From TrEMBL:
UniProt-listed Pfam families: AAA_31
SUPFAM superfamilies: P-loop containing nucleoside triphosphate hydrolases
Domain named AAA: residues: 110-286
Protein name: Cobyrinic acid a,c-diamide synthase
Amino acid sequence: MTNKKKLDSRVSLEDLILTSNRVGAVIESVRGTMLAPDARKRPPIFTTNQVATICGLEKSQMDYRIKKTELPVGNRESGHRRRFSLEDTRVWAQTERGKFMRPKSAEAITIAVANFKGGVTKTTTAVTLAQGLSLRGHKVLVIDTDPQGSMTTLFGLLPDVDVNDEQTILSLCYGTELSIDYAITPTYWSGIDIVPANLALYSAEFSLPSRQKAEANFEFWNVLNHGIDTARTNYDVIILDTSPSLSYLTINALLASDGLIMPLPPSTLDFTSSGQFWNLFNDLAANLVTNRGKSKSFDFVDVLLARVDANDASSSVVREWITAGYANMVLPVEIPKTSLTASASAEFGTVYDTDPTTINARTYRRAFDAYERVVELVEEQIVTAWKRQIGEQHGA
């Protein structure tokens, strides 16, 4: 049905309030339908082959361990097919992938996913990375620093319905809390906790500069960095989702991070915007860090080609520009633009939430394999960063 727009009508503030309420009701209704029967997301279950792949085992090795060890044996469904819960899968991963787990003397690696523009799969990348790392046995904390709360929504929470201000990083920004621990909330996904966001986070853009002016020795850019100190010992990886701007909160996220990931579609506008992002960031970093006699370095900075359309001839040219500009920062993998990624987002999910039996097998495999490769590459850099930490502890 098409609604005909009235050209002679005016819109009052009261009309906008009614519209906002109506849209909110539709969103709540959509979530109730997508996540029925209890309007909450549920974790996936895994086959024996999937668990074996995650753990790097052959099927025969998996079968032997099921019979001879105390690892979870899963549940048998009709037809004698064995299924493993997410919790059981993570136990297998932690046991069989010991060399990839965080050493006791190392701290969590903090990763910010950032870009100047919206619509570049930034949040999807952050959430998918968190899920993939969790599946590999890591304990992950995700922090949503974007007032729009897209990451929060992908974890099954409606920012303005399920999240109150005290559950966000706002108290940290106000100075009423010094550690992020107060806001950490479990998610439906075992191994991932979240600090959610809602629209109230916009007030941080006023409170942080106000505190900078009023409080001696206050450093607005280090609020989050100091706030996650205890989380660094309690988690393996901390992933920060940011707003599509260099806001006060985004600056906090970038300077609190050990690694940066920029999803970048191969389009002219996205490429030029990415250059503006780094120019602004470098100027800010110089003022806040370098000019104060301090230093900041990252264990890795990755550029991830995202939403790549193999049928778009112009994108191949832009990919060459991106490779020329970002050189070895460009990850050797591309996230394809597929119907799967679009439909998963529409259902408040990611490729890891998607039931592969409900979509074209080839389409699923393309997207799934690409994200799996991203997780693998990032995990390699995380493990290297832990080794670097330990080396620095021993004066290497």
